[in-house]
Each structure stands twice: as structure tokens, then as C-alpha cells.
Amino acid sequence: MTTVTMNHATMPAHWRDFVALTKPRVMSLVVFTGLCGLLAAPGHIHPVLAFTAILCIAVGAGAAAALNQWYEADIDALMKRTARRPLPDKRMDRQSALHFGVGLGVFSVILMGMATNWVAAAVLAVSILFYVIVYTIWLKPRTAQNIVIGGAAGAFPPVIGWAAVTGDITALPIALFCLIFFWTPPHFWALALFVKTDYAAAGIPMLPVVSGEVATRRQIWFYTAIMAVAAMAPVLLRLTGPIYGTAALLGTALFAVFAFQVYRRRESDPALMQPERRLFKYSILYLFLLFGAVVVDRWVFA
Q1: How far is C-alpha 99 from the chain's CA centre?
Q2: How far is the C-alpha of 65 from the C-alpha of 292, rounded, in Å?
Q3: What are the transmembrane regions (predicted)?
């Protein structure tokens, strides 16, 4: 009797694996902030072109995620929370992921340029390249400040959405970029505190691994203070009105309460890190709330 052994790594990938490469859950926040930038922008864009612009932002984000997983396949295999992704789980070969990511990226940029304008397309291209080259390849494996600088990659969508309508970049999209940029460190380091063993096992120099939990908690509090200034900047610069101002004030105050609870704790047992988990979950809701408030505010007081 002959036993036939199938090489699981060479089997054709399921379409669900390609979808998983795009990190759809992460993409939802990217798409939402891009949509808010588009809806808050002055001027008019045809609904079909608006849909196309948001589609391009989503596809571009998916391209960046796919290329990130292509490059980090070996690292992902060492971490519990990423070991079941398509590449480390051998449900897809790396070449397919590379071709998929590059194809999505090129398609999204060209379609954005043809459907809207080349300013939006250029910013989209920069965001993809920044995430893949600057953050994934250069910063992440080399410095504990990777997420600080690399946070710029996730801050581009509202700028892209705005540029898709107007063809330029003005003060409000820049302010929204800064909000996401300074929001990223406390958001991501809250997660890193309760998954630091994963990063340590993979040799990734995340701040809790390199500098310890006390320093990380201090940095979360420090960047929360900067983020608070960035959150109020659109109001102080008179770029938005009282609806956004109220949402930013109340939402940021609650964010600060959660961040302070994280700052003052010293427990290192991941099972006890409820404040860290609470801050991480709330930080996602916080960004949804503030960007939604920007749109409502602009529509009411435009």
C-alpha cells in the first residue's frame, strides 16, 4: 500500500486566506477615518467616485497588510496571536502573498489617480510604502520607538479621503493626521503590555520588552497628554465647531482616566491587566467617535 503525502504548504490558498491577509478588522478603522476625511471635505464628489475612493483606501490598506505578513511570516510563526495567519500556518506560500500585496497596491493607487486625482493617489502610495518599508522593514525590528514613527502609516487615510474630494491638503486633514499619529502609541502600547511575551519570543523590540512595563506605562500617559492637545487642536484652530469640541473634550477626558489607571498600575501578570485591555478597546471606540463627530460638525456648521 502506497501512502501519499500532500505538502500542505503547496496547496492552492483558499479565497478566505487572501481576505485574511488584508486584516479586515484592522481595515475597518482605516476605511472609517478615510470616509470621514472624504465626508468632511468641502466641495462635491460624485457618489460613485466617492465609493471608488474609499474602495481604493481599503484595497491599499489591504495591500500594506498583505506585504507586512509576507515580510513577517517567520516572526508571525513565533507569536501565539499571529501563528494561525495564512503564511505561518502554511495555508499559503509567500510568493502568492507577495504578488497579491503588490498587485493590490498598484491597482489601488492607479485607480485612485484615474477616478479622483493624483494628489490622493500619491498620498495613498506614500502610506503603503511607509507602512511596508519604513515601519515593517526598517523600524519594527530595530527600535522600541517603532510604533511612534510608524504610527504615521495609519494616519494617512483622512488625508487621502480629503484629497480625493479637494485635490489638496489643508489644515483640518493635517490636524486629523496628527490626532491619529499621537493616538497610536497609547493605543498600541496598551496592547503590547498584555502580549509582550509574544513580542519577546519573536525578538521584536517593542517598548515593554526593551524598556519594561513601568517605562511603557509612563510613555502611555505622556503620549495621551500630547494626543489630548492634538484632539482639541481642530477646535482651538476654529476648524471645527461645538459638536466636535464637546465630543473631543468628553471622549479625551475618559481616555485620560483609562490611561491614568494604566499608568499607576505595576502588575505584570497578563491575566490581571484589565485596565490595559479596557484602554485598548476604548481607544478604538474613541477614534470612531471623534471622527464621526468631525463629519457631523462639518455638516451642521458648514
Answers
A1: 22
A2: 25
A3: 26-45, 51-71, 92-112, 118-138, 159-182, 220-237, 243-263, 284-301
